[in-house]
What we know:
Elements: E1 2-6, H1 16-28, E2 32-35, H2 41-52, E3 56-62, E4 75-79, H3 82-91, E5 95-98, H4 103-117, E6 125-128, H5 135-146, H6 154-157, E7 159-161, H7 164-174
Parallel strand pairs: 1-2, 1-5, 2-3, 3-4, 5-6, 6-7
Amino acid sequence: MNICVFCSAYSLDDYTAPADEFARLLGERGHTLVWGGSHAGLMGRLADRVKAAGGKLVGISVDMLAHKAYQGADELVTTRDLAERKAQLLMRADAVVVLVGGLGTLDEVTEVLELKKHALHDKPVVVLDSDGFYEGLRTQLARMDSEGFLPRPLAELITFTADPAEVFTHLEARA
């Protein structure tokens, strides 16, 4: 399975253990990581761990960040801009997983959910909610769902879990 992962390009020591476990499982299960193509921060750490566990790497970088491109990827594509990068990431993925991250990660996951809401894809989206990092997002999405802002039930759009192994339970059930 090609698994797109959205996560931070910054180092986040408090969140590395769940990300490391997720990366190890991804590689050991023979999946391919499709990610932002960076060697920096959590992105680079994730790629290193997936590769060490036997997984393949497909990086989708962007011109303005080409200097941070991960050089050990099995495939590295550079896009003109962030919009093209997001489109490439989703196009090449069978599933989407969200790890901790900042505004870029939030932008990516909300776009993927918006596209899924409109049935423009039906790929599973799973959030690895390390240490309750995404509790606010979960609360907001639940409110949108309960107040009628989502044309599809929230459970059809996204799954939250704190357990790296459970991410694969959700993904592989759909494969």
